[in-house]
Amino acid sequence: xxxxxxxxxxxxxxxxxxxxxxxxxxxxxxxxxxxxxxxxxxxxxxxxxxxxxxxxxxxxxxxxxxxxxxxxxxxxxxxxxxxxxxxxxxxxxxxxxxxxxxxxxxxxxxxxxxxxxxxxxxxxxxxxxxxxxxxxxxxxxxxxxxxxxxxxxxxxxxxxxxxxxxxxxxxxxxxxxxxxxxxxxxxxxxxxxxxxxxxxxxxxxxxxxxxxxxxxxxxxxxxxxxxxxxxxxxxxxxxxxxxxxxxxxxxxxxxxxxxxxxxxxxxxxxxxxxxxxxxxxxxxxxxxxxxxxxxxxxxxxxxxxxxxxxxxxxxxxxxxxxxxxxxxxxxxxxxxxxxxxxxxxxxxxxxxxxxxxxxxxxxxxxxxxxxxxxxxxxxxxxxxx
Amino acid sequence: xxxxxxxxxxxxxxxxxxxxxxxxxxxxxxxxxxxxxxxxxxxxxxxxxxxxxxxxxxxxxxxxxxxxxxxxxxxxxxxxxxxxxxxxxxxxxxxxxxxxxxxxxxxxxxxxxxxxxxxxxxxxxxxxxxxxxxxxxxxxxxxxxxxxxxxxxxxxxxxxxxxxxxxxxxxxxxxxxxxxxxxxxxxxxxxxxxxxxxxxxxxxxxxxxxxxxxxxxxxxxxxxxxxxxxxxxxxxxxxxxxxxxxxxxxxxxxxxxxxxxxxxxxxxxxxxxxxxxxxxxxxxxxxxxxxxxxxxxxxxxxxxxxxxxxxxxxxxxxxxxxxxxxxxxxxxxxxxxxxxxxxxxxxxxxxxxxx
Lengths: 385, 355
Known about the structure:
The complex is a heterodimer.
Chain A: E1 6-13, H1 25-40, E2 49-53, H2 66-69, E3 80-83, H3 89-102, E4 108-116, H4 122-126, H5 135-151, H6 156-169, H7 184-189, E5 192-194, E6 197-198, E7 207-216, H8 217-223, E8 228-237, H9 251-264, H10 269-272, E9 275-277, H11 285-292, H12 301-306, H13 330-346, E10 359-366, E11 371-378
Chain B: E1 8-15, H1 26-41, E2 50-54, H2 57-60, H3 65-73, E3 81-84, H4 88-99, E4 106-114, H5 120-125, H6 140-153, H7 159-172, H8 187-192, E5 195-197, E6 200-201, E7 210-219, H9 220-226, E8 231-240, H10 254-262, E9 272-274, H11 281-290, E10 297-298, H12 313-326, E11 332-339, E12 345-352
Parallel strand pairs in B: 2-3, 2-4, 9-10, 9-11
Antiparallel strand pairs in B: 1-7, 1-8, 4-7, 5-6, 8-12, 11-12
Helix pairs in contact in B: 1-3, 4-12
């Protein structure tokens, strides 16, 4: 039997900020969940199952936190399931929730992802619990340098992405960073963290939660809310280290997007997809993922950035919401990419809406750029490509 | 009972012994299980459609510990794979759900946990909320003690009942090569033991264990192709209860009652029940909530009181039941997994043999 169609029917986000000390963990997830339920025109009674995701438990020091959050999530008497796939977890969680709907076993599923980084030490956790670790930027910087060497990209590309995403964030009330006076000069002059990454080319450390209500085709019809149909999803994993590994354009990323496109017959993603929310925690990952997911040819991704194609008014807008560079509650960041892609095809993206967007993708990666999770959403159930 | 789009069967399973201490890495513990199930079905590992694992970073004391476990699965060329920060039984749940979409045929499921490197009680006390319960160190054994005391206070059980569960579990484990503890214990001797945490004695509590398990599940046509004697997963469901022990009736398990209804537990005979009885009083609650009578063999493997590798222990219940059914010890049964303190979250899986 074929999979049951699944749509995003409600979206909720918290304000992302450095420190949400006005709420507990329970309060944080509940804020996003109540907004998603309201957006879906649903209540907790309508929810058949809950799927929750976050990055390592050690970030907040709560082991298997679904156990202590289940009351706040309205999960009592229901199935609640926890996903953890490193930085890709927000997108993996979204996809696991889709699986529940597609299985036909659950009609309406609530999914939520969060991080409250102010309660822990992200760089410690991201270094595998070792003090004095290199953190995520330290892992990725050499690979970025390798990309620059291979593609011969000029150094201002990273600065352009950093500015573009922060300007987009000014249109997004939930974004953590609102930097109205951001400029190429400011990025270039900001302290060097991990060559070639300056401070302003890096993501912030945020508290926040994101949630979605997903439903099958019957629920979508009844809800009357604009649906974002999840027409394709894919995940791929590879080892983080082995001789000959391409760390600039990892094979798992290439195969993940190939699988995503193949399922619905996309042959020219650049033309057939209207916009994308890609996981770009460090500026250079915009061109790297444009190439790594075959939206641009190898060596050509930076030229899209340079030409302004990835700007909000460009031919292939990327990270219209401001992206991970503007808000990064790690465990939620992948889900934010997925729900912002859904916002675009539902026409609910407000000031950062891409006019007429019908097809969009949400993307996340994690670990040593070894975990990939992507989904494609559409304003129509069966779009023809 | 929920109607299913696809029939799914277990076609291969493997488990490690429950080790008092496994003196190597977690991937080294999982790998023989993975290799075994792949060998059993005669597949190339690259032909497995989806892989999903359950484990817990906190047991290893390291964020992202699960990433290393993909060494045991093999992730080159890239694989379609996921991970739950839950017992492997929930990895099985997600694998089973994934097969219902009908576009893939096989899922490799694993669960693993090394409890011995750290302090189990300290670690697991962090399962409670960080504001009220964790700061007072409300660890699982303490909550199990509350539960035991509540049972006694309600007149639903006595310490002798607990000791009988222990004695039977250890006796059953004599036939189980994977068990960590086994033997003939007298109930009177058990009752003469000092309390560890009143009213619990040492053997009312599980041993500290390291272990892993793995299985391959497949859609019906593929299952028959891969295996002469598939064990069918007729239903699987899980439910949770409040985090706050004071908001629960600790002498009952409403989550198990809902799950039992959802999986149609009593739509057929229940020959065998493999239950995650981590503390002996839990068996009394589970038997009652499941509505089991004397016709059901409970924990013929010995259960977690005789070996309890957390994060694998629930999946191991499914494996023990599948083995018993494949061996013809029964035709239909239920496996139970649990997560959280005092049976907070519970999963039921109904298995049935072909014949």
